[in-house]
Amino acid sequence: MPNVIPPTIDIRLTPADLRAAMERDVRQGLMSTPKELPPVYFYDDRGSRLFDEITRLPEYYPTRAERSILDAHAIEIITAAGADTLVELGAGTCEKSRVLLDAMASTGRLGSFVPLDVSDTVLWEAATSLAEEYPGLAVRAVVGDFHRHLDTFSDGGRRLFAFLGGTIGNLDPGQRTGFYADLTRAMAPGDALLLGTDLVKDRGVLVAAYDDGAGVTAEFNRNVLVVLDRELHANFDATRFTHVARWDEDEHRIEMWLRCEDACTVTVSDLGLEIGFAAGEEMRTEISTKFTPDTLADELAAGGFAVEKSWTSAQGEFQLTLARRH
């Protein structure tokens, strides 16, 4: 019987790096027109708990839809990919990884697993658990950013890069182009990409998924201001900001905004900034692009990938796509 292989962790992103990135992002975002903040800063402990609650809401279909595809087709996905190494970008707790690892084990392809995430604590806990759950699996966790550290994946064998959860939709078109370019440089012949994407659908369904009746998404959105108050000694008053979710037909994306209801001036002490907000002014906090199978295939082709196979959830809400580098 295979022995448990102790996991390793490769730290490419330090707390100082994360702090510098936050300072840079917030400074640039608050001085932009319109103002904007990257969604990564939603996810402190409270924000992560709120998002977990969101994934269980009746309005929020993406998590359930993607998981249903994985549960139904994981073995087919792994067989088509022909991979013995799974690389997951933005792995988090690695919950979805387990479905793919089970499929790799059942098809005799369980070799190694390389999860990447910015949170070293969560990543190490997941890596330790997985090494114990899957004897013989070599786990090398990477603390890093998929925008900057795709060049760290030098593991041998045939690799399946998984980018799940519809996260690709949080990137604007220019960022997606850069991501595909970085990924093609990191991939070797025979490697495959498994990409999770939310699909265009009824506008009411889309907006409701980002503006639930219980107000959980609104609290999640405002939590970014709580994070900035704590981490950068700002004086945002989250109660003065209203959550807004709207569909942008031209860009085929949901946008989340925070609307300042009354004119105010916000001080961000650690950055030496005083930022004015007009009454009714909105600050964008997230985009979530939705695709059609054809627009996704065209985008992947432009990025250097050819679609080999795709799987769609039963109600047509979500798609997993297997593609290979040209």
CATH-defined fold name of the largest domain: Rossmann fold
CATH class of the largest domain: Alpha Beta
Cα gyration radius (Å): 20 Å
Strand order of the largest sheet: 1-4-3-2-5-6-13-12
CATH superfamily of the largest domain: Vaccinia Virus protein VP39
CATH architecture name of the largest domain: 3-Layer(aba) Sandwich
Terminal CA distance reads: 39 Å
How much of the sequence lies in strands comes to: 25-35%
> Ranges with pLDDT <50 over ≥5 residues?
none
Largest sheet: 8 strands, mixed
Shape: globular
How many structurally independent domains?
2
Please give the number of β-strands: 13
Would you tell me the overall average pLDDT?
A: 94
Secondary structure: helix percent = 25-40%
The helix/strand class is alpha/beta
Order of helices and strands: EHHHEHEHEEHEHHEEEEEHEE
Count the DSSP helices.
Answer: 9
Can you offer a commentary on this structure?
- This protein is of the alpha/beta class and 326 residues long.
- It has two domains: 59-201 and 290-325, Vaccinia Virus protein VP39 (Rossmann fold); 205-288, no CATH class.
- 37% of the residues lie in helices and 25% in strands.
- The chain has helices at residues 15-30, 45-54, 62-81, 95-106, 120-133, 173-186, 203-209, 216-232, 293-302, and strands spanning 8-11, 85-89, 112-117, 138-143, 159-163, 192-198, 241-248, 253-260, 264-268, 273-277, 282-289, 305-312, 318-325.
- Helix 5 (120-133) links the parallel strand 3 (112-117) and strand 4 (138-143).
- The longest helix is centred in the N-terminal third of the chain and has 20 residues, at 62-81.
- The radius of gyration is 20 Å and the shape is globular.
